[in-house]
Amino acid sequence: MTTLDADVLVTEAQRSTGLTDFGDDTLPVRVGMVVDRLNSAELDETGSQAATHTIKGLLTSRLRFVADRARLPLEAERITAPLFATGEPRSGTTLLHALLAEDEGSRALRFWEVMYPSPPPGPADGDDPRRKQADADWREILARIPPWIVSHPYNDLLGAGLPECERTWAFDFRAMNPSAWWRVPVTIQNFPQDHHAQYALHRMMLQHIQYTRPPKRWVLKGFHGRRLRALFDTYPDARIVWVHRDPVQVLASQIVAFGQINESLAGTLDWRQYARDTIEGSRANFHAYLTDPFVDDPRIHHVRYRDFVTDPVETIGGFYDFAGLPFTTETEKAMRDYLVTNRSDRYGKFTYSTDVLPVSVEELHEEFAAYRDRFGIDIETRH
Fold first, then answer.
1. Residues in Cβ contact with 157 at an 8 Å cutoff, skipping those fewer than 6 apart
2. Closest alpha carbon to 343 in 164, 162, 154
3. Is the pLDDT of residue 383 over 80?
């Protein structure tokens, strides 16, 4: 077993790039936390090499990203009135985001841009080698995690796929995103959060990718429900569409989908413990939404999952009305065409059962009754 050394990894990244500024003096502390986690996993030589490669890649990417901001007028880029899709994982937010990205007047992040952001991709042409590199990365990811293309068919876009907002701070070492850590045989994990620092980095990434490109409205997607204060402090003119689904179905789907990812990465998974951990983390979110005053912020448009899946495009039209945006015939057609050509079961039907829940369904329905009442959600019956 090889023991990783955070100080050595940081120093090697600086030496290899000739750069020293990470833009945050606290970053090495978080690198140390990640390294401690990896060392405790007792990785074999192959795993240690993969971890070393991943950490160095994230560190060098961060150094180059910060250097770009020192030499280019990126701070002058204005991020105006972005649209955010949010909701608990497995609530239809990825489809919502994909449809929002079909509007010609909008711009969405692409995986190749956030995986390889430097130099800023705006001036790059269609033959930029980073596109092919991200495609190759995603083929490797999907080979490593075969079930992911079924539970998340949007991954077929490879490097042109739509990342969640959380991917913009992968090189901040606060979360082990699967699309950054797929080579390392460990379960994904989050580390202590600083929401304002993370959204500042998110905004920097948008400026980075927008640089030299014609202005468009950003459409974004992430799990923002517990970070609303920081989001609105960073983007005061943002508008959010928030999909709410029966928590019992959300939890069961999360356990299976994310469990498959973690099992594929780590090789084995204690499914009972994983189910318990998932329940504890997600139930805290559902309860917090009932007391957070920002959930009632007038910049948020709440929709029901049932309404969204019945007619996704009509639901988005309602969000456009809420945000004061024109919902053109061309935009509606593009979205409806997307639904026809991108069936959610194109790689097989993702299946799960409430049998994976470590708590009785009846008990959970009772626990989440206040949440369902607050957002007008019915108990979801699956056939």
1. 111
2. 154
3. no
Write out pLDDT tens, residues 280-307: 989 999 999 999 999 999 999 999 999 9
N-to-C CA span, the chain: 48
d(CA 52, CA 50): 5
**Residue 122: pLDDT band by 50, 70, 90 thresholds?**
confident
**3-class secondary-structure state, position 173:** coil
Instruction: Decide: helix, strand or coil at residue 109.
Output: coil
> 171 to each of 82, 223, 274, 334, how far by Cα in Å?
23, 18, 26, 34
**Distance of alpha carbon 39 from alpha carbon 3, whole angstroms:** 6
pTM for this prediction: 0.96
State the pairing for strand pair 239-244/217-221. Answer: unpaired
- Scored b (16 or more CB within 10 A) or e, 103-134 reads beebbbbbbbbbbbbbbbbeebeeeeebbeeb
Q: For residue 365, give the nearest of 382, 352, 351, 378 by alpha carbon.
A: 378
Helix/strand/coil percent split, the chain, to 5: 60, 5, 35
Average pLDDT over residues 136-152: 97
Contacts of residue 64, defined as CB under 8 A and 6 or more positions apart, other chains included, come to 17, 19, 117, 118, 119
Q: For residues 352 and 253, give the distance between their C-alpha atoms in angstroms, rounded to a whole number.
A: 6
Is the previous residue joined to 119 through a cis bond, with omega within 30 degrees of 0? Answer: yes
Place of tokens 């901001």: 69
Average pLDDT over residues 139-168: 97
pLDDT digits (tens, 9 = 90+) for 30-77: 999 999 999 999 999 999 999 999 999 999 999 999 999 999 999 999
Q: List 346's β-bridge partners, or say none.
A: 348
